[in-house]
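step: validate -> pass
step: tokenize input -> pass
step: predict -> running
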Amino acid sequence: RPTVEDGQQTAEALLAAHPELTALLCFNDLVAVGALQACLRRGVRVPEEVSVVGFDDIPLAPLVTPPLTTCRVERDAVGAAAMRLLAGRLEEPGKAGPSHVLFRPRLVVRGSSGRTQEMRAEG
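step: predict -> pass
step: emit ->
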């Protein structure tokens, strides 16, 4: 489940089982917030020891500490594509085959990803 609590529990388990981890790429931003909390509880420094990256770019992402690096997909574009696909299926119900739509997320770099910050400082 993609909740803050699930992110906490999963990150706790991963960090306990694999202390060598250097990054957590999370299902969504809420899970990533939970991962940040788990790191804080375990004394793992973000981003110095572990980078945490979410997916969504919810309004909370820049407000947590450290601000969350995340992947942004334009929700309006996803909604518009879904409506086009639905309208096409309603117009021609017999042609309901698989549809493929590609959305390219944009990486929004904030304070929770350490290596990227180091690379920016070097370049």
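step: describe -> The chain is about 45% helix and 10% strand.
step: cleanup -> pass
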